[in-house]
Amino acid sequence: MRYTILLLSVSLLPGQQAGFDISALDKSANPCENFYQFACGGWMKANPIPSDQPVWGRFSELQERNRDVLHEILEKAAANPSPGSHERKIGDYYASCMDEPTINQKGLVPLKPEFDRIAALESKSALTAHVAQLHNLGVRALFRFDSGQDFKDSTQVIAEADQGGLGLPDRDYYFKDDPKSVETRKLYLAHVQKMFELLGSTPEKAAAQARAVMEIETSLAKGSLDRVSRRDPSKLYHRLSFQELTALAPSFPWSQYFRAAGAPPVSRRSGNPSTAPNGTSRPPLSMPTTTPR
């Protein structure tokens, strides 16, 4: 796949001067017949897609350059000799992430507390608090919950509940029956099984666990909007009160979830965080049209 946004070929790479790059044009192409080839053909010929990249364009170059700059900053921070400084803290964090021998030596130990909490779950009601815990850790289990700008009122930031929980890029990956999609699901299933094997499961048990994951994700995908639908803001914005949310999905204990997630009370009138008079009001919510129940 190729993407090139025509921005007068502005160059921001080291050693290149910003401005219009005439060599990006393909003057052999007729702009009246194929303007894209005329405008970008020269650049595409000189910049084939790298073997490790699915797409490539001028912004890909910019992204790679940005990573190089950030890498240099982090390497310098890791070598900073000033204990307690912000630079040293950043450097220590980076160095700990790059310390693969120590990471491999510790293995699953850092994850054991989470696995223990999962193993201790004894009922569906206990699952609610753990989903909130995972969300607080940044794991979008089952669905996504965070805050965002109200689409129709720029003065308000409201809570947002949205679809989530899929390991594949979007819902269509779970249902398309073309050969490539079928193969992708097969490879994904094998990947999930391998992860369970690395966690200590036997191949047989890991295969069953992987099938369970795939079944759960497929069920979530059935209740998810496809990528095209999500381009329509009207299908994403559905502001609800807490009572309306409860009526929409009564089988999920939302009060328990909000408490466990640490969601602050919000005034419905202003949308600004405040303490409700009775201590029971909850954030107004924006939800997608299709909501798993």
List the helices and strands and how they pair.
Layout lengths: L34 H12 L11 H21 L7 H13 L1 H7 L5 H8 L4 H13 L6 E8 L2 E11 L15 H20 L4 H20 L16 E2 L1 H7 L5 H8 L23 E2 L7
Parallel strand pairs: 2-4
Antiparallel strand pairs: 1-2, 3-4
General description of the model:
The chain has 293 residues and is of the alpha+beta class. Among the domains are: 65-106, no CATH class; 124-164 and 229-286, no CATH class; 171-222. It contains 10 helices and 4 strands; from the N terminus they run H-H-H-H-H-H-E-E-H-H-E-H-H-E. It has helices spanning 35-46, 58-78, 86-98, 100-106, 112-119, 124-136, 179-198, 203-222, 242-248, 254-261, and strands spanning 143-150, 153-163, 239-240, 285-286. Strands 1-2-4-3 form a 4-stranded mixed β-sheet. Helix 6 packs parallel to helix 10 (254-261) and helix 7 (179-198) packs across helix 8 (203-222). The radius of gyration is 25 Å and the shape is globular. Residues 1-12, 267-283 and 289-293 have low confidence and may be disordered.
Briefly characterize the structure.
The protein has 293 residues and is α+β, with helices and mostly antiparallel strands. 44% of the residues lie in helices and 8% in strands. Strand 1 and strand 2 form a beta hairpin.
Main sheet attributes: strand count, strand direction, barrel closure: 4 strands, mixed
Weakly predicted, low-confidence segments: 1-12, 267-283, 289-293
Average of pLDDT = 84
Beginning-to-end CA distance, first to last residue: 37 Å
Can you write the helix and strand succession as a string?
Answer: HHHHHHEEHHEHHE
The backbone outline, from C-alpha atoms, is: globular
